[in-house]
Amino acid sequence: xxxxxxxxxxxxxxxxxxSTRLPGKPLADICGLPMIVQVAKRAQExxxxxxxxxxxxxxxxxxxxxxxFDVVMTRVDHQSGSDRIYEALCLIDPDKHADIIxxxxxxxxxxxxxxxxxxxxxxxxxxxxxxxxTVEITHEEEKTNPNVxxxxxxxIADERLRALYFTRATAPxxxxxxxxxxxxxxxxxxxxxxxxxxxxxxxxxxxxxxxLRALEAGMRIDVEIISSVPLGVDTPADLDKARQILAARA
Length: 250
Hints:
By secondary structure, this protein is α/β, with parallel strands linked by helices. The protein contains 9 helices and 11 strands.
């Protein structure tokens, strides 16, 4: 943001221990550090505000604390990362000092700090409730892959879209770029409060995409276009790739 206020911004990183494909995922070693600590370090390098990790397991709490980052214990039964970060927000900032909350997923150890900073840019527009990120799809197989979520948006600047829809289908039809959604969000505090108060929506349940709840409720989501998709670690193969990426950077 052009007028970004470090003191008014919180970076919240949700970390959930239960993972069917990669048990104990937050503690997985990547270049000598637990994955959740690597994510916190990427957020630290972005230098946009206070960082707090929201965990549901004592072992994760302990390693984050030992690494020198703020950490808060949250319930184990949250259905989504947004619910977890909202509980964390209420616990650590009950007096509502923070105006902007950035939700960085706890399985993005290789995310570029510039990408975290980019998520703030759409909030320069006071009409924007939620900001997120996208990358133009360049591999043909991704265009039809339902695991690659697409942003359908109207261009509002050279590197920005206003989101009209999110889908697992190949959309929009016709000539032109398709965009791969990256699930990192920057919320205005009021928008996050509104979002978690809403019940799951019809299209959200149909597509299994939580962000559709916000659009169906009339909230505005703007999307910054960046150059590369961060690696989300969901499998042992992803973990190996993350190790290779960070080892190469080092």
